[in-house]
Amino acid sequence: MTEWSAEHRSFTIETYFKNNDSIVATMRAFRKKFKIPPKKPLPSRKAILRWVTNFLKTASALKISPAGPKKWLRTPEYVEKAKAALIKNPSRAARKHSSSLNISDRTLRRMSHDNSNFHAYKILITQELRGTDYDVRKLFASVMLEKLKCRPNSA
């Protein structure tokens, strides 16, 4: 994905309105103005519409930054809530815990790993090898070797 400058964005928005809201005409003018070869990428239809929408909302061609400070959820209170939920029901899926606590799945996993020493795992059912299995495997191998010796070479 190419990062477009404020100049690119403002030209695109201006051209979009001059061409009666035509995205195709805007893309052609963009390619011509900035001398972009035919195989090189242009701003997508979605990007152009997003730029126009942002411009109509904010009167700016620049990116809209998220409103307010970023919410940091790995606070001691959230860590304790997550720890309590995991201790209360350790067999419950992390996805379900995260949705009930209203935090992202990844944040919950980080908190559980870093602060609570819980580690996510998936139970796999495997076959158990017993003492008698060794003799059966040895017998199978010897039978197969005998069959291979009796077989004529097909090479």
Describe this structure in words.
The structure is a single chain. Among the domains are: 6-58; 76-114. The two termini are 54 Å apart. The protein has helices spanning 6-18, 23-33, 45-58, 76-88, 94-101, 105-114, 133-150. Helices cover 56% and strands 0% of the residues. The chain is flat and about 85 Å long. The longest helix is centred in the last third of the chain and has 18 residues, at 133-150. Helix 1 crosses helix 2 (23-33), helix 1 packs across helix 3 (45-58) and helix 5 (94-101) crosses helix 6. It has 155 residues and is an all-alpha fold. The mean pLDDT is 85.
Short structural summary:
The chain is mainly α and 155 residues long. Helix content is 56%, strand content 0%. Among the domains are: 6-58; 76-114.
Summary keywords:
mainly alpha, 155 residues, 0% strand, 7 helices, flat
Outline the fold blueprint:
Blueprint: H1 6-18, H2 23-33, H3 45-58, H4 76-88, H5 94-101, H6 105-114, H7 133-150
Helix pairs in contact: 1-2, 1-3, 5-6
Percentage of residues assigned to helices: 55-70%
Cα-to-Cα separation, first versus last residue: 54 Å
As residue ranges, the low-confidence spans are none
Structural class: mainly alpha
Radius of gyration from CA coordinates: 31 Å
Shape: flat
Largest sheet: none
How would you spell out the order of helices and strands?
A: HHHHHHH
Strand residue percentage: under 5%
The counted number of beta strands is: 0
Mean pLDDT: 85
Total DSSP helices: 7
